[in-house]
Amino acid sequence: MTVGEQFQTARAARGLSVSDVSLQTKIQPWVLEAIESNRLLDLMSPIYVKGFLVTYAKFLRLDHEAIVTQVAWPAPEPEEEEPVKFTPVSRPRIDLSALWRTLRPALPAAAWVGVIAALVVINPLRWMPKLTVSEPSRPKLASVSPVRETPAAPRPESLDVVLRSSQPLELTVTANRSTWVRVRADGKLVSQQWLRRGANEIWTASQQFELVVAHPSQVELMLNGQAISPLAIAHHGRLAITRQGVGPLADDQF
């Protein structure tokens, strides 16, 4: 059986509908239907597909490792190309001796032209009377201090994840390229490291995560099995993740 047929058979054996599974796993119904029809890889990144497969398999008590190995994953992306090396172009050398031999006969004539120009232009100006022109008085305007508007505090982006107050937070960080990360859970530093390309790390917290990423566009985040929107990650790589949503992390918080 295909991977999708295994999920569909296991769900039917437990007498559950797609809606029942969605309510208990918090996975959207269209995602479950795409898994059972083997179409999820055509709709989203393989990193997210793997997370949904593991969550669904654990719920149905299937061997999630065997499920993941049966999926026909796409070929990995090629390694980044080396930067193009430019060869400097040699500039022609100027023969200064030949240039001097060419300009030397014209120097006396140029010197006389300069003397005549000085006598005609500079000398008469020295004897001309200085005229002072008073500028018309301008009315003074009362200085008005600019009004500084207090920027509104950014609102955290809401999450599509429904979390119970007693349910712990589980943050999954997957690196699409090598990047540096620092993670603090409930105010305690839990990780500060370089994540290599393809690395997958999971941390837990009870109330809040504080995350700093050197290259936010190079990572994918999941909270309790649900993908966090890339728009929520674009806060200059400094994120505060709580049960209410995702927002920018203040400079004095980390």
**Mean pLDDT across residues:** 76
Taken in chain order, the helices and strands follow as HHHHHHHEEEEEEEHEE
Report the C-alpha radius of gyration, rounded.
Answer: 35 Å
Q: What is the approximate shape? A: elongated
Main sheet: which strands, in order across?
A: 3-2-5-8-9
Number of helices: 8
N- and C-termini, Cα separation: 50 Å
- CATH fold category name of the domain at 169-253: Immunoglobulin-like
Low-confidence runs (pLDDT<50, min 5 residues)? Answer: none
Which class do the helix and strand fractions yield?
A: alpha+beta
- Describe the biggest sheet? 5 strands, antiparallel
| Helix content estimate | 25-40%
What is the second-level CATH architecture of the domain at 169-253? Sandwich
Could you name the CATH class of the domain at 169-253? Mainly Beta
Query: What is the tally of beta strands?
Result: 9
Q: Strand content of the residues, in percent? A: 15-25%
Summarize this structure as a short list of keywords or feature phrases.
single chain; 254 residues; alpha+beta; 434 Repressor (Amino-terminal Domain); Immunoglobulin-like; five-stranded antiparallel β-sheet; four-stranded antiparallel β-sheet; 8 helices; 9 strands; 19% strand; elongated
Descriptive report:
- The structure is a single chain.
- This protein has 254 residues and is of the alpha+beta class.
- The chain is 32% helix and 19% strand.
- It is built from eight helices and nine strands.
- Among the domains are: 3-70, 434 Repressor (Amino-terminal Domain) (Orthogonal Bundle); 169-253, Immunoglobulin-like, CATH 2.60.40.
